[in-house]
Structures are given as structure tokens and as C-alpha cells.
Amino acid sequence: MAQGERRIRVGVSPFPEHTDVDELRRAWVEADEIGVDAIFVSDHFFSMNPGAPGDNRTHECMVLLTAMALTIERAEIGTLVVGNSYRNPNLLADMFRTVDLLAGGRTILGIGTGNHQPDYDGYGYPFGTLGDRTRALAENLPVIRERFAKLDPPAPRDIPLLIGGMGEKKMLGIIAEHADIWHAYVWEGDTHAAAIEMLRHKQSVLEDRCAAVGRDSSQIERCVDTTGLAGDLDLDELVDAGFTFLQVYMDAPFDFGRVREIVQWRDQQNAQPHT
Fold first, then answer.
1. Which of 25, 70, 82, 124 has the highest count of CB atoms within 10 angstroms of its CB?
2. Rounded Cα distance, 88 and 80, in Å
3. Which pLDDT belongs to residue 229?
4. First CA to last CA distance, the chain
5. d(C-alpha 156, C-alpha 106), whole Å
6. Alpha carbons 207 and 249: distance in angstroms, whole number
7. What pLDDT sits at residue 191?
8. Residue 270 CB: number of other CB atoms within 10 A?
9. Is there a contact between 42 and 4 (Cβ–Cβ < 8 Å)?
10. Sign of the torsion angle spanned by Cα atoms 177, 181, 187, 192
11. Is the Cβ–Cβ distance between 204 and 242 less than 8 Å?
């Protein structure tokens, strides 16, 4: 969807940490029944937010995504985001193609450089530097696209690439060249005004990077994590800043009260004519 269309979408990402598969399945079903547009799963082998002592429960991303394809009937499903370093890019493309067949053409391949060193150390992947991981992502994205085109049978649709990142030196250039959806985020604790100013700046950088590679920036949908703004949230201003895909991360136990409010607001906004 082009950014200029201004259709607002809502995504949720129930973290697969400190929970069990039954609770996750119930959360996916509830989110789908509420009417969110997309349901995502994160990709970590070790918790990003350690829980109570001894509670190190996590679940593997791609297996959960497959279960989502067979559980969720309406919403799109995807990763937010899969770690580029963890799987061969040809294999990753094949995995997503297969999940997309199971889901009837509803998957979003969300991908990023990877940043959680315990994942790398614990599973024997070289962590390297951020520059190393960024270069690896840039190299793998064309491989994923090429593999999509070779797979038989093909995915039911062109699987959208969501790329998460904010770095001005390299990442926004990669996003400008390859992304269908850009996932941005705000710093926890930032005021809403500071977050909007930062997002507008990052968006202007992205537009410059798109111009440099000859791409229309409106081809890239803007997605933003709203979780850090829970206490100071102006959805209208986020949308006016160009971010029409609003994402909510959720920790177990999953409470969908805020998500219901955002979905209701989305419906009211999308029912209004926009020029």
C-alpha cells in the first residue's frame, strides 16, 4: 500500500517470552477477532526482557509463524523482525513461501540486522560488529527476492518485505532500496513531541535515500512502534507525520484493552474521506 493512500492499519506483536503456546494461541485468536490488520512474532532465542528468576521461556519464531498460519483466519501474519543472521537467506525465503501458501497469501517478511548478543553467543553465531551485520543484511535481501522468484510453487502473492531500522548511515539507504514497509520505533521514555520530531527527521532522511536510488518514497508504507508512548500518545499526529501502520508490542499476560481502543479509532479514521 502506498503511503499516500493514508489507510490506517494496526498491528500487534505478543512477545513469545515468559508465556506458553496455549496463551500465545489465545492471544492470536483474540487479536484476529478484534480486527487488527497484522499479528507479528519476534525472533529471539533468549529473552530480551528477563522475567522472574528461572523464567527463561522462549519459543522459536518460524515454527510459531507456521502455527499462526493455521490458526489465524483473517489478519496478515509476519515477523517483527526475523534476525538476518540466523538463517540462510535462500532457506528463509523458502520458509516464508511455504508459510504463505499455508496462510493463503497473508505473510509479511519482517527482517533486521539482529542486535541481541545472547542469541548469537548462545547459538554459536558470530556477532561481529553492527557494520558487519548491516552489510550482511544488504547482501541477503536481493538473494531473498531472487529465491522467491525461483520457488515452485510460488507464494500466492509478492511477499512484502518489512525492514526494521533507523540508522542514517546505512540502514535507511537499505530500506529505501528494498523495503515495502519501514518499521521505525521510538525510544522508551521519550515525550510524544520528541518522538514526532525524531520520526519526521528520520522520514526526511529516508526520502533523501529514496531519491538517491530513484525510488518513489510513497511506495514504502511507514510502520511505527507505539508502545513506548503508552502514556503520551497522539495517534492523529503520528498519522499526520506519515506513519499509518501503528504497531503495539505486548508482554504476557496479554491485555488487549488498548489495542481495542486503537482499532476503534482506526475504523473511525478510515471511514472518513481523506484527500
1. 82
2. 18
3. 64
4. 16
5. 9
6. 27
7. 78
8. 13
9. no
10. positive
11. no
Interatomic CA distance for residues 202 and 223, integer angstroms = 13
Residue type at position 62: M
Q: What is the 3-class SS of the chain, one letter each residue? A: CCHHHCCCEEEEEECCECCCHHHHHHHHHHHHHHCCCEEEECCCCCCCCCCCCCCCCECCHHHHHHHHHHHCCCCEEEECCEEHHHCCHHHHHHHHHHHHHHHCCCEEEEEECCCCHHHHHHHCCCCCCHHHHHHHHHHHHHHHHHHHHHCCCCCCCCCCEEEECCCCCCHHHHHHHHCCEEEECCCCCCCHHHHHHHHHHHHHHHHHHHHHHCCCHHHCEEEEECHHHCCCCCHHHHHHCCCCEEEEEECCCCCCHHHHHHHHHHHHHHCCCCC
Phi, psi of 181 (to 5 degrees): -135, 135
Cis peptide before 81 (omega within 30 of 0): yes
Q: Buried (b) or exposed (e) across 15-27, using 16+ Cβ within 10 A?
A: bbbbbeeeebeeb
From first to last of its 275 residues, the chain has per-residue pLDDT tens of 444 457 999 999 999 999 999 999 999 999 999 999 999 999 999 988 776 666 778 999 999 999 999 999 999 999 999 999 999 999 999 999 999 999 999 999 999 999 999 999 999 999 999 999 999 999 999 999 999 999 999 999 999 999 999 999 999 999 999 999 999 988 766 777 888 899 999 999 999 999 999 999 999 999 998 876 655 668 888 899 999 999 999 999 999 999 999 999 999 999 988 65
User: Which residue in the block uniquely carries the three cell numbers 540486522?
Assistant: 113
Q: Go through the chain and tell me how many residues it has.
A: 275
